[in-house]
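Obj.: predict assembly geometry.
Materials: sequence records (below).
Method: joint structure prediction, all chains together.
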Amino acid sequence: MTAYLLRRVLVSIPTLAALITLTFLLLRSVPGDPADARLAEADTARIDRAAVEHLRSQFGGDLPPLPQAVLWAGRCLRFDFGLSFADGAPVGARIVRALGATAVLSGTALLLMLAVSLTAGTWMAAGAGGRLDRWGGRLLLIAASVPASLGAVILQRLLAVDFPLFPLHGAGPPGAAGEPFLGGLRLQYLALPALCVAYRGAALYSRLVRQAVVQTLRAEFVTAARARGLAGPFLHLRHTLRNALLPLISTTAALVPAAMAGSIVVETIFGWPGAGRLFADSVLGRDYPVILALVWAGALLTLTSLLAADLLLGSVDPRVRVHDPAGRQG
Amino acid sequence: MGRPPTGLTRGGGWPVLAVVQPALFFLIVSPGCSPDLPQPPAASETLRIALRAEPRGLDPILHTSNLSRIVSAQIYEPLIDFDPQLRPVPRLAVRWEREDGGRAWRFELRPGVRWHGGGEMGPDDVSATLRRVLDPLTPSLDLKPLLAGAGNPQITLPFGIRIPFDPPASDSLLPWWSLSILPGGAGPDPAAADSPPRGSGPYRFASRRAGEWILLERNPDWWGGEPAIRYLLFRIFPEALTAVRALELGEIDIAMLRPADRGRADLAQARFRVHTVETPSVYAVLWNLRSPGGMFADARVRRALTLALDRPALAGRLRRGAARVAATLYPPLWQRGRETVPPLPFDPGEASRLLDEAGWRDGDGDGWRERDGAVFSFPLLYALEDELRRDTALLLQADLARVGVRVRLQRVEPVALVRRLRQHDFIAAVHAWRLDPEPYGYSLLHSSQASGGLNYGGYADPVLDRLLEREAAAADPEARAAAGLEIEKRLRQECPMLFVCFPISLVGVNRRVEGFSLGPLGLLQGTPGPANWSLTMQENIQ
Amino acid sequence: MNPVRGLGRFPGIALLCAIPAACLLAPFLTGAGRPGMPGGLLPHPAAIDLDSILSPPSARHWLGTDLVGRDLLSRLLNGGRTSLTIAAGAALLALLIGATLGLGAGLAGGWIDLLVGRMIEVVDCLPTLLVALAAAGAGWGSGPVPLTLAIALTRWGHLARLARVEALRWRATPRRDSALAVGAGTCRLLAHHAFPAALPILATACALVAAEALVVEAGIGAIGFGVEPPAPTWGGLLLEARLSIDQAWWPVVFPGVAIFVAVSAALALAEPGGSGGVQTARPAGAAPPPWGSL
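Observations (raw structure tokens):
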């Protein structure tokens, strides 16, 4: 087991190295450098040519990929990400804030997804074939086919404008400085963005859970359990739910990269200061230090959670243990 | 399939739980649970402004975009300001004089101006700021050209400064509006948390949350009197639709509107009014005169292309009046009463005739013109920065198709577009510039500016060059106006680019803002500004 | 929960077939060539009509017009061809790459498994925005083909992961041993045995990739990657229209309905028996729900 873990960690190093190198290469091929970004921002009908050239050299003109990548990777291990090209602020603090905001949004969305899908899925499975099941299924399908960019606009209109139940925009009461991020007031602002991120996933998860529960309920061991006299909540918790969780785990693991990237659309519409927005703004503004720092941090978090998910899956379904393919242990 | 044995439902409780779980979540997050947390500023004493993106920085020397200026102009002050009619108003300078045909500028400064956080403004601050701008290491892209030729400033008595110029400076006051004075010339240090922006303006920096908002608080010691509005809150709305909705709800006091949103203000219960102002920007389609096909070398072709585009329809119907057709580079605002040159009309018949004359004819009847076997077809680049660029591109494609010219549209990311323009790696592109009330035709159209400058199309016309030089060297406004008129006539005749329109900005302002004024220099720019406004009708907010 | 069954057999299937059929007919209905040229029952999808900007459904424009006065029905039908081709192409390509690599990794184990696993990780962590920008900058961006490739190359990772898990499961079953006993080679193992075992799960995941593709292709259009305007796509129609939703519902609702029908069709195709029709003891449809981006 420990050997497997160690092997996985060691093997992650070339992955990270490959990732950073690829990112450097991509940044070199992207047309336009930070000096062009400044020029695009200024858009005046007069410029000082010498100043533009000076700016170009200041931002390190061409990025030679390999030596620069190695140097930079070394600094990253010390968590020294440098200063942003946009305004000179330290990059580390900025990405920590952004990643934190994304984590809060993504985490809440995930919880919401799980809660709603487990209950809705079980509910529909309990009445499988009945009217609730059929209409619920249709409703879920409609929800699943509305993309977030549209759904967010509609939900914002319904729940923040027409019936003002939630704040329209922002991650907290604007202008209140020094406020802790997870204060009670902030949850208000979290609800609508989290809903917009989660509704599609919840719709599809519900189908998943429903099918899992229906399958399991028909399985032999459940009939045996019922014959022994188990019913109701006990049946659910001990037998059906465990089996329903199986596909959920593997699919949740697959969600992590997307969750790390943040939901750019929802963050834009609601003004949530997350990593998705920060990444998109940095790419469009050619802010190399921030781009590289976000790719690095995102990759670290993703690889860690993928590893955790693999281990979890292995412990739940012995056949899938990678460190023990024949399932001989445990 | 059949129904499974209903052991689940008989157990009971599950439907209830299914409702209770999500309800519990939303109950927790709904308003009501508010532990003891710092309170935001009260809406009754805060002016809330929506920004479409976060200002890159608040240092007025380094960051001169409109977005940064909206905020930094409240914190910092220049020597001279302008009113909505572009007349100069004393700010940090009470008197000014241009000596000796422009060999020096002399300013007498206002005494008793205090910096935020302590200290008094003096001539050495002005001197330090100027020296910082002129320093070759300072990346101030568009301030440097304005102050070209400035030498070492000398402090004069009793409380003034004299700045020599060699070559002599023009009589334009624009540099002295663009140059905001910083204490000791030093701007805020973003890497240090305790180095906020410090200026002399009516509002001082209070706090900021990256990506969300910037809060300014009034400066009680401001020389112009304590402002009536206590706080200025700039909220960042990356999505324009949300900002308009916020304006409707009364959560925001000032927001930019799109033409389609104008109608929302006409509703009886609307909380806001619409103000319009002609912005000094010009949208144009650039032709690369050095393109391999050589299509745009002929002036008749360029003129035909201009005649073929239905610019009045673009400005009137597509943009619903939120634009004015551009005859040439000079907006009416800047022409200051001199004779103007009317735009070329929309005349596809004449355009066809000119194209025929230039040798482009439809030989094979497929609807597209050819010449020497090559079809008149080219890609048009545009960036999706705003709807006006997209509308221009779409309409141009449709209108040129009617006269037999085939246009392929290509969306390009804004920075990539700038890069391609600078490298002359394009054939046609939609672009826009922010203009000054000073001659700028030189930097956009003089042949010397073709490589490395803003003359992206590579236009070289000796007649125009001479006229542009004459305008730039003009000794007084009359001479400049006369040169400008000649330039406009030449531009109308030669059509080096397709001048499309000058956009008109629509700003939605909550009715509770009293004294609101909007000038051509931009939102919240100029005098009078937010320091002179006040907030009433407190029921108009959410 | 099969939507086709829910709708009743005949009307459901008819609806699902009608949409692609109408889309195929579209060029004949609208007349080829430039806008303004005569011919066609419907206006050309790129014909700008400044007199009827954002006008509601009427006799002249059955589904209304969009922001620049183009007929929505025409754009919807013409866009269908592009969108459905891209979606189907991307999904099948992702299936091909993902299934091959994933099943191969699961069956072979060892260093192949290690390598494929790392490839999947890199593909997952690489930001698509950067890749799209670099490709657009190099001039490979425009048109449906790079778009299809891009979507397939970013989505194959998940399919490969699913395929690998299924392959590992299958390896532990006695069927594998019996297949080896009759002398099956690697290729036969893969194609004839492992793939059908994994197909139910992969099919749904594939259908979801197709569903995502319908919308994703519009999202990166802003940087110059993808189908060039004025050529319509369903995702593009949605994205263009959603910001004027407060004024006009029709440019949003009709493309939305089209996408909904396409998604239902894809899912119905992937799970022919609907729920409970699959024989395995595991539930079908173990595909990741889409995250809230696009």
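Conclusions so far: Confidence is low (pLDDT under 50) at residues 324-330 of chain A.
To do: check interface contacts against the pulldown list.
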